[in-house]
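Lay summary. Proteins are chains of building blocks that fold into shapes, and those shapes determine what they do. In this project we predict the shape from the chain. Here is one chain we studied, written as its sequence of building blocks.
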Amino acid sequence: MFLELINFLTTLDTGFGVISYITVRAVLAMIAALFITLSLGHFFISRLQQYQIKQVIRTDGPESHLSKSGTPTMGGVMILFAFIVSVLIWGDLHNVYLWIVVVTAIIFGAIGFADDYLKIKHKSSDGLSAKQKYLGQSIGAILIGIWIASIAESPIQTQLIVPFSKDLFIPLGVVGLVVLSYFVIVGSSNSVNLTDGLDGLAIMPVVLISGALAVLAYLSGNYNFANYLNMPFMPGTGEIFVICAALIGAGLGFLWFNTYPAEIFMGDVGSLSLGAILAVIAIIIRQEILLFIMGGVFVAETLSVMIQVGWYKKTKKRIFLMAPLHHHFEKKGMSEPKIIVRFWMVTLILVLISLASIKIR
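And here is the predicted shape, written in a compact code that computers can read:
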């Protein structure tokens, strides 16, 4: 939005041109999203309390969570609002990748909103049925996957990049890309949703991973850097840098209110959409495998649920005291803040390992 104004001002004075740089717009996008979230926080929380939009706690969960009952939820609306507004202000509206990410946020945010709404309406932890939620995610993921595949202009955009190797690319083709996109988007969306069970547990890894994806997007979208680092050059993906910056700003702003003890929860409207956004960004810059590595905490949480359910159906016994994994550590007596910070630390380590792939190839 402002980019058009900046381009006009540049014709009057070339000094305005500096604002059009991706790096400058990224900083401004982050600051804008952070400012919007922090400014809206207390007002939004008070309105949620006024309209009784509060978290319903599972009675079969850890006993320490019963005190969280009544905490305002659906804070993901605030995250998405700050994120989308900031992106539309500072992003290049002619860039198709920007619109793919924004549409992804809206689709998966809507699914999460419906799930949260039903939970609040019925005063139960059950919202959309698993089939309804999965159907909505599947339709959204397939549509986004087809959209991404339809704009592929070079072979690299339909290949799977294997990190830590400079010449290993696995051809997928258009159909293969759509199929991979489907699994990555649905998987990432659900993984973040499962991880969002403790105060600040999910949002900080989202911020850290967004930062890493921002670096990768900026390098792959710049011919000189991509050539120097022997990375595939993908025109247009540099704009993802601005998008990731906005996501970081919105995430940090939300964390201000979501850190232990949380004043607000993001709800499914936040977790489902944030997971999908990370997945789509990784798909656009062809870094699905690195997303899997960086999101190791999300992966571990998901696997713990799958293993627990599968093993219980087979043997009627549990491997974990409770799933997802963070509940297992709670049941073992570990304090909530300690679990949260340690999961953050693990994510940071995995992010740094993933960024090392830039030079180790």
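What the prediction tells us: The mean pLDDT is 92.
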